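U., I forgot to send this yesterday:
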Amino acid sequence: MKKGFLLGPMAAVIVLALVAVPVLAATTFWTGTPSPTLSPVFGTLVDFDDKATGTVVNSSDYVSVGVASITETELGGTLSRYTGTQSSPNYVGTGVGCERGTDNAAGWDGTILIELANAVDKIGIGIADSHGIDIVTIMDPVGNTLNSQTAPASINTYCGFDSDTANIKYLEIYGDFVAIDDLQFHHPVTVEKEFLDSYNVDDAADTVINVGEKWNFLMEITVTNDSDGELTDLLVKDNFGGDLELLEIGGEEVDQPTNKKDKWTGSDGAAGVTVMWTGRTLKAHMDWAIASIADGGTTTLTVLVSTDINPGQSKDKDKGTSGKNEYTEDGEHCLNSGPTVYVVISDYEVSYTDFNEICVDVEPAIE
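Result:
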């Protein structure tokens, strides 16, 4: 009897990355309303309430939601969760023991640096229980200052920045007796890759992948425009491992390559798609050109892949002649490297990458 299960994620949310070109974009500083009546509300919210009051905030605690790191960079302070005055129960600060010695000497000092996994076009932060001068600064992916402002003189306030394009990579808060809460940030484009189906080609009732079996996997890539206008000339790139072969894209059958010089161009449901292959195992590299997506619009592409023949198992070393079917080893196997979307927004080239691979669990061969 078979044992084991298919692994997810069945739906993988895209985490985004940015590559900059030397174009300056306009940024605007704004003030809002802190929790409990938070305004404005947008994008991803990190309220620091996911763990118990009194726990340390590790730099990598929020990687899964797009925060690459959060650290205190000036005084060597430790960031922790304390009972908060904005969104309950927690806000984040350095505590009474962190004092720079040049201000009101009440502790809770420091410079908090938040690095996003990928650059954004809007960011906001709650400044809580402040009794001194607090300066908020945004920087681009290479560390250049885009804008720096003194936060409003208020015990509790909410403020942030808008940019014409997705170039905000860092948020720095220089604080005198201050805590932070309700970090928000917004991406102008979101991409979701969803695992739709998987099945054993020789046994449709099978639910467990075993070594040596022929399996097909169906995925769908969805690109959504969350910017304030139409986006044009987008390019999606995706790579697939040498243990897989592309069968269909957008419902159109992909001609299988005979060598790495081959190139396939799609039409109809696969319009704008080209595929090239590299290496001895003929790894597939897909480009998907999207002419435009309206504001608030989406576009999707389905991709059907199958486990391939392992050329290393073939006596004559020719792909697909007498080799064994992938997968040849049990364990976790990932289907692709994650798509990257390239687009120009306000003359600024950005790229967004899905770092969350879709993976499956392969059990040992049936004896």
